[in-house]
Amino acid sequence: QWQEEGRRWVCFFQGTNPLVFRGLQVAVGVSASMGYEVNSLAVPRRAKQDMGALVELETPEGQVTVQSVAPGQLDRLLREGFDPRGDVDDDGTGQSPFPGNIDQLVLALEP
């Protein structure tokens, strides 16, 4: 029905964050211009900050996926399999290399 009405995008957002509407407009524009079927907004975060993080994972076969890691879990996961220091800020940016997940999604209705 949405496609019949001419709608091309669906946005999921957290209602407690009114500032996201500015970012969602930009995310839809970027998604359209880049041909993305799925897009997610993220923000810089400090290491060990209590918010979910987005990480890129690659299987041994080379398949890449982006996953959200729950708050408080990233440091432990990194220590177990990536870096014994865990979630640490980058020296150049002062931020974690893993952006914060703010639960804002943009989906194309038609690929």
Topology:
Blueprint: E1 9-12, H1 20-34, E2 38-43, E3 53-58, E4 64-69, H2 74-81, E5 100-108
Antiparallel strand pairs: 1-5, 2-5, 3-4
Describe this structure in words.
The chain is α+β, with helices and mostly antiparallel strands and 111 residues long. 21% of the residues lie in helices and 28% in strands. The strands form two sheets. It has a three-stranded antiparallel β-sheet with strand order 1-5-2, with helices on one face. A two-stranded antiparallel sheet has the order 3-4. It has helices at 20-34, 74-81; strands spanning 9-12, 38-43, 53-58, 64-69, 100-108. It has one domain (9-108). Residues 80-102 are annotated as: Disordered.
What attributes does this structure have?
about 110 residues, alpha+beta, two-stranded antiparallel ribbon, globular, UDP-N-acetylglucosamine diphosphorylase activity
- What does the radius of gyration come to? 16 Å
Give a quick account of the main beta sheet: strands, pairing sense, barrel closure: 3 strands, antiparallel
Uncertain residue ranges: none
Helical fraction = 10-25%
How does the helix and strand content classify structurally?
alpha+beta
User: What distance separates the N and C termini?
Assistant: 16 Å
* Overall pLDDT level: 92
Order of helices and strands: EHEEEHE
Strand order of the largest sheet: 1-5-2
**Range of strand content:** 25-35%
Oligomer: single chain
Count every helix, treating DSSP H or I runs of 4 or more residues as helices: 2
